Prior knowledge:
Blueprint: E1 4-9, E2 18-24, E3 27-33, H1 46-49, H2 51-54
Antiparallel strand pairs: 1-2, 2-3
Amino acid sequence: xxxxxxxxxxxxxxxxxxxxxxxxxxxxxxxxxxxxxxxxxxxxxxxxxxxxxxxxxxxxxxxx
Length: 64
């Protein structure tokens, strides 16, 4: 299956930083900050960077 990049916001905390989530075979394989986010300019905090590990066991991502 092809890797899909989903534009979203991080929900680990209340800041809502823009991020891209890379998904392959229904699993998150990578997260990266969104450079066009005017507040963060593509930077993610340690919690946002750990999103891949935090959601590793999630089985139903509902990604369209």
